[in-house]
Amino acid sequence: MGVVPLEAFAILTARIFLKLIFAVFCILVVAVLAADYIASRFVEENYIQNMTADLGDKARMVAITLRRLPDPPQQELLTEMGKALGGRLTLVDRTGRVIADSEAKPESMANHSDRPEIIQALQGQLGSAIRSSSTLGTPFLYVAIPMEDRVLRLAVPVARVRSGVDGVRRQMLAAVAIGFIPAILLTALIARYVSARLGKIIEYAGKLAEGHFDRRIPSPGDDELGILARKLNETGEKLQRTVEQLQREHVELEKLERIRKDFVINVSHELRTPLASIQGYTETLLDGALHDPQNNVRFLSIIRQNAERLARLTADLMTLSRIELKTQKFQFAAYYVNSLITETLDSLRPMAEKKQIRLEFQPAPAHTEVFCDSEAVHQILSNLIDNAIKYTPEGGRITVAATPLNHPKDFVEISVADTGIGIPEEDLPRLFERFYRVDKARSRELGGTGLGLAIVKHLAKAMGGDVGVSSQLQHGSRFWFTLPVQDLGLSEHTSVQAQLTVS
Ligand SMILES: Nc1ncnc2c1ncn2[C@@H]1O[C@H](COP(=O)(O)OP(=O)(O)O)[C@@H](O)[C@H]1O
Ligand SMILES: [Mg+2]
Questions:
Q1: Number of domains, the chain
Q2: In this structure, which residue's CA is closest to atom 12 in ligand 1?
Q3: From the CA of 357, how far away is ligand 2's center (Å)?
Q4: Which domain holds residue 402?
Q5: Do residue 373 and residue 427 come from a single domain?
Q6: Which residues are registered as beta bridge partners of 477?
Q7: Per-residue pLDDT tens digits for 1-29
Q8: Which of 265, 313, 325, 347 is the most buried (most CB within 10 A)?
Q9: Does the Cβ of 438 fall within 6 Å of ligand 1?
Q10: Is there a domain that residue 167 lies in?
Q11: What residues contact residue 2 under an 8 Å CB cut-off, 6+ apart?
C-alpha cells in the first residue's frame, strides 16, 4: 500500500465523519419504522376498543329513546339519529329480519341472522365486528346491543377509525422527528470528535511510513483510540531510537574506516622510507662506492640503521596487532608494584646516566600490590622512560612514582615525569594515536617509530587500566597509567599463582 498524501487526510477525516453519521442515521430510521409499526398496531387496537365501547354507549342511548316512541320507528327519525351519530342505525328482530334502517328500506335488506355482531347481541352481549358492508363495499365497524327481543346495531365506516389512528401516528412521528434533531446533533458531535482523533492517528501512521519518527501524537487519552495512539507513539519512539543507534554506528564505522585507511597509508609510508634508503645505498655501493674507503663504511652503517629501524617498526606493529586481535597472551598475577618498577628502572638506568639524567623513584607504600602481566608493565614503563630520556636534555631529571588511588578505587597509578621539552597543548589529545608525533623528523632521528605510546595505551587498557598525559612546553611532561589492585577477570589465561617478590 502506498503512502497516503498529506492533503488526503482532510478528505479521509470527512469520510469517516460521514460514514459514522450515515450509520447512526440508518439505525435511527430502522428504529423509527419499527416503533411506528408496533405503535400504530397498538394505537389501532386501542382506538377500536374505545370506539366500540363508545358506539355501544351511543346505541344504548338510542335504544332508550326508541323504547318511548311508536314501534316500528319512523324512517326519517332513524335517518336523523344516524346522521347525528355519524353512523348507520339498524334494528333487527330475533330472526335476523331488518325492522328499520337509517339509510335503506328494510324490505330491500337481506336477513342479518348470520352477522357475528347480531349473533353476539342476541346472546345478550355487546357484539362487534369489522368487515366490508355488503351494500356499500367499504369496511365498517359494527356494534350491536340487545334491546328486549331485538338487536340495535350502529355502524361507522372504518375510514374514520383509520383517520383517528393516522392522527395519532402523525403526532408520534412528529415527536420522534423532534427527538431526532438532538440525536443527530449529538451523533455529529461524537462523530466529529472520533473522526478527528482517527484522522490524527492515520496522519501519524502516514508520517511513520514516510520515515518521520520524531513526531508523537499529543495527549492520546485512555480509551481504545488512546491505546492505539499510544502504541503508535511507542512504535515511533522505538523506530527513532533504532535509527539513531544505526546512525551512530554508521558514524563510528566511518571513523574506524578512516582510521584504518590512514593507518595503511602511514604504515606503507613508514616502511617505504627506510626501504628506499637501504635500496639507494646498496645500489650506490654496488655501483662502485664499495671500493670507496672514505664512504663505504658510512653507507653500510646507514643501511644497518635503516634495517634496524625496519625491524623496530615491524616488531612494534606486530605487538600492536597482537594486542588488538587479542592474540597476545597475558600472564596475569599479583605483584608488588615497587619491585616491578625497580626492575625496569635498573635496566634503563645506564641509558639515563649516559645522558646525565637523574632517574628517581618515589615508591608506593611497601607491599602495595597490582594485578597485571609483568612483561607488559615492563614494556609500558620502558616506552615511557625511553621517551622521557629522549625528550629531556642532558642534566635533566626523570621521576617515576607509584601511588595507590582513591579515584578510581583499587587502582595504582604509575607516573613518569620529566623536566624535558614538553608537548604543545594541541598535540596532547592525539598523542596516543598510532604514528602521531609532535616532531616527525626529530622522532625519526632519535630512532622512534611513533608507535610507542599507542602500544602503551593498548597494553594498559588490556590490563584494565588507563593512560593519560599532562605537559607544559619547555618545562616537562608527565605520563601516567593505572593498574588494578585485584583480578578483574580480564583474561581466560589468568595465572592466579602468586608471584610476589619482596620489594
Ligand atoms: N616525554 C616526552 N616529552 C616530550 N614529547 C614526548 C614525550 N613522550 C612522547 N613525546 C611525543 O610523543 C610522540 C609519540 O611518542 P611515541 O609514540 O613513543 O613515538 P616515538 O617515541 O617513536 O616518536 C613523540 O614523537 C614525541 O613527539
Ligand atoms: Mg617512544
A1: 3
A2: 437
A3: 17
A4: 329-484
A5: yes
A6: 471
A7: 444 555 667 787 888 888 888 888 888 88
A8: 313
A9: yes
A10: no
A11: none
| Three-class HEC string of 459-497 | HHHHCCCCEEEEEECCCEEEEEEEEECCCCCCCCCCCCC
Q: What cell was used for 37? A: 409499526
Please say whether the beta carbons of 465 and 474 come within 8 A. no
**Is the per-residue pLDDT at 500 higher than 50?**
no
Which pLDDT score is estimated for 36?
A: 82
CA–centroid distance, 298 to ligand 1, in Å, is 28
Pick 176 or 55 by higher pLDDT.
Answer: 55
CB 335 within 8 A of CB 450: no
Beta bridge partners of 332: 373
* 304 and 444, same domain (yes or no): no
**Last residue of one domain, picked from the residues 157, 184, 214:** 157
**HSE-up (13 A, CA, CB side) for residue 432:** 18
Within 8 A by CB and 6+ apart from 217, the residues are: 200, 201, 204, 229, 230, 232, 233
Residue type, 463: M
Determine whether the shortest distance from the Cβ of 431 to ligand 1 is under 6 A.
Answer: yes
Query: What is the rounded average pLDDT of the residues 247-266?
Result: 92
Residue 421 Cβ inside 6 Å of ligand 1? The answer reads: yes
Q: Which of 329, 337, 306, 244 is nearest to 449 (CA)?
A: 306
Return the pLDDT at 1: 42
Distance (Å, whole) CA 231 – CA 235: 6
pLDDT recorded at residue 225: 87
Gap from CA of 387 to ligand 1 centroid (Å): 6
Structure confidence at residue 6 (pLDDT): 54
pLDDT band at 502 (very low <50, low <70, confident <90, very high): very low
Pick the ligand that lies closest to the CA of residue 385: 1
Q: Is the CB of 391 under 6 A from ligand 1?
A: yes
What was the pLDDT predicted at 501?
35
What's residue 74's pLDDT? 84
Domain termination residue (choose one: 121, 140, 157): 157
Ligand 2 centroid to residue 261 C-alpha, Å: 23
pLDDT tens digits along 301-331: 999 999 999 999 999 999 998 988 888 889 9
Instruction: Please tell me the distance between residue 366's alpha carbon and the centre of ligand 1 in angstroms.
Output: 31
**Do residues 334 and 323 both lie within one domain?**
no
- Phi-psi bin for 326: left (phi > 0), alpha (psi -120 to 50), beta? left
**Residue 408, preceding peptide bond in cis (omega within 30° of 0):** yes
Three-state DSSP class for 104? coil
Cell numbers describing residue 292: 670507496
Kindly give, in sequence order, each residue whose CB lies less than 8 Å from that of residue 240, ignoring residues fewer than 6 positions away. 213, 214
Q: Are residues 316 and 344 in the same domain?
A: no
